[in-house]
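Blinded run. Sample ID left blank on purpose so nobody reads anything into the name before looking at the predicted structure. Input follows.
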Amino acid sequence: MSIASLQPRKTLVEEVHQRILDAICDGTLQPGARVTQDELAARLQVSRQPVMTALGLLKQQGFLVDHGRRGLQVAPVDRARFDAIYQFRSALEPLAASLAAARASRAQVEHGRRLISHGQRVAATGNPAAALQADVDFHSWIYATSGNPLIVQSMQTHWQHLRRSMGEVLRRPRYVHKVWAEHADIVEAIAAGDAEGAALAMSAHVRTAHERVGAEIGAAAGGMS
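Blinded prediction complete.
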């Protein structure tokens, strides 16, 4: 007798949380936009209870802030949080890349190269949402290939905050092609088993990404002042 594996389904609260978070990260819900349980429940066609729980989680995670006595609004992009995340990435991601270079199987390397090809194709289409997802998939591959589950867990929540600011960079054609060239260099260092080279390439990539995204955040803040 064969027993099919069961993939765990997301709870309704998790689904609602993800929908609202995606809307915040892709700019559908802009910083300062007011959000209400009733409106979201009607738009998502669910009861108020899962929406209330999801909003509480998003507030706890820093994506929503209080607005008036009872309301909530989308939080602005937090430059201090952004800089802190990049400081964390600058230490963690070179380690992940060096571990990946030491441990990557042939199948994992081929998967990494497929991610590069896909990312380059997406970059050519000019689709910012697809470009952002391809970027997340690439870095998630690095974490998984490192073989260290703590790296994967540590970056999950941080990437949700990065999605908000990185989307602006990946809308710029002048940036997106450079990003994938840097990704390709990292993959080839991993493929060669060059732990030091992979760490150096990743370190340079994270530093440059910090500068690019920071410039976009600064420009956006200046436009709103």
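Unblinding after everyone has recorded impressions. DSSP finds nine helices and three strands in the chain.
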